[in-house]
């Protein structure tokens, strides 16, 4: 599944998941990517919707929202990711990159609300996310992760969290753990790759 996502990100083509297994040879896969890119029915760009105050939700989003009303303290729909970074790291660069991704992808600025007994999604014009920074020993990571992954209120932005853990170690090369958590209502296999 990650290979299909990476192919779509790199080449802007969508190939069926089954093709990866039917054509495991890299040359055959390259031909499929090349041919798919030439397909007339393969859209390279998503046409933008007209700008509105609220938008319709998908059936899956509706199910997740309704389920969240019954599982208030549940984190089963969270999609946390962690990335180990070694070497010098520029916090300002991280903040700019996260802000850029949020500016570009409306789904990361989306909240959900009930209007006239109907669930809708609202895309906010702006969202300034606060990245948490903390120093810790490697042995403290499990507790930090437990505290980081917590329920989201789907009616309020952000439905995304970012945390950078600076590991305190006696090493020549500094190490960091970059943590992201998004609610599944705003992400799928493709959007999970936005930050990796």
Explain what you see:
There is one protein chain. By secondary structure, the protein is an alpha+beta fold. It has seven helices and seven strands; from the N terminus they run αααβαβαβββαββα. It has helices at 2-11, 17-22, 26-38, 59-70, 91-104, 141-148, 189-192; strands at 55-56, 81-86, 110-115, 118-123, 132-136, 160-167, 175-182. It has a four-stranded mixed beta sheet with strand order 2-7-6-5, covered by helices on one side. It has a three-stranded antiparallel beta sheet with strand order 1-4-3, with no helix packed on it. A hairpin with a 7-residue loop joins β6 and β7 (175-182). The two termini are 15 Å apart. Residues 39-43 have low confidence and may be disordered.
Summarize the structure.
With 196 residues, the chain is an alpha+beta fold. The chain has helices at 2-11, 17-22, 26-38, 59-70, 91-104, 141-148, 189-192; strands at 55-56, 81-86, 110-115, 118-123, 132-136, 160-167, 175-182.
